[in-house]
Description:
About 0% of the residues lie in helices and about 35% in strands. By secondary structure, the protein is mainly β. The strands form four sheets. Strands 2, 3, 5, 6, 7, 8, 10, 11, 13, 14, 16, 18 and 20 form a 13-stranded mixed beta sheet that branches. A six-stranded parallel beta sheet has the order 4-9-12-15-17-19, with no helix packed on it. It starts with a strand and ends with a strand.
Amino acid sequence: MWIEIVxxxxxxxxxxxxxxxxxxxxxxxxxxxVTGAWANIDVQSDGSDGNLTLSGGRWATYTFDLxxxxxxxxxxxxxxxxxxxxxxxxxxxxxxxxSFNVTDDISIAFASHPSGCPVVILIKGNANINGGWxxxxxxxxxxxxxxxxxxxxxxxxxxxxxxxxxxxxxxGGSYQTGIIGGGAGHSAAGTRNPFGLPYGNETCIPLVxxxxxxxxxxxxxNYGVAGGGAxxxxxxxxxxxxxxxxxxxxxxxxxxxxFTYYDATAxxxxxxIRLISDTINFGGTINALGSNYxxxxxxxxxxxxxxxxxxxxxxxxxTSAAQTPQLWPDSTTPQLQITSVGGQTAxxxxxxxxxxxxxxxSSNGSKVVRVxxxxxxxxxxxxxxVKMTPKNGADTTTNCTxxxxxxxxxxxxxxxxxxxxxxxxxxxxxxx
Length: 432
């Protein structure tokens, strides 16, 4: 049995969102709103990635290759300008530019980091952003899991000789034997059973993308395959001066593939985007909606002077920017990390790759999963769970039992029943 562990920092992010979520406030904004709280804000960019100017017209493409980022704490100056750093503790590739200009209708693409993490772009000066930014999840791809945008999660597989699979991520739609795939959750639950749960909060702290919709097995006599769509990605752009944006941002969950005359699978849920600046002039478009039967993602805008005339879906959460905006979860944020499976130590920075396991087990059957929890109450008011999503077959969710420790740091365990083949594990904590 091969086990992939969804990145420990995805664990942190997914479970930091918890289910103590405040009611999400979506605010529709049109026209100008001026508050003028600060002359400038500090987004903590040292400018070490240099000045980026992209042009070339609508047929040109620029790709951020996240795999080229050097592993280091996020505030380390970039060793190679323009390549950024990958911080495994925060689960993000972080770019720190001095200035940032996309002057034409260029296409902006992303090659994901092996950890699957989101993208953070910090800009010391002003930013002028045009072009088309593609962080969409891919559509269902049959017998293999569909590919998410950076910071999102895979869609489930569909196959006609073996089982399909559930979607991946904290809101992945569940698979059931038969021909119906569950919708993925994000800002809300998926809209078709067995649906994925909501997660996250309006602040987009931590930053996490969309989850995958479930795939299905083909009905009798149908030799097609139907996979679930992948989740949209996750992006943070913060600049200290004025952010002028007339570009388009796609963070849409991918479509579920479809049997002839029968809409069997579910799409992925929408991703997340957070824009921070002292002044924002936004005349572009943002689309972070989910696809068939799956939830929309989240949009967050923080600026002291705002002129928003573009189209934003779903409606954003809007607020003023702090003088030093909070970029990362603080020390009191709940965190979870799967530390071992069946007695095998899980890596601190897992890669969550179904074809290159983080943990390899020598036998099937009952296996103990151990979870370390930080800032999670141990008085019975919270539940810690582990969800196992096989590469093929039904996903299962198991409640953990508190073993030792206190709210600051505790240990929880559960027993899962593993079969042959590969599976992904993810931990989640929620208030009862």
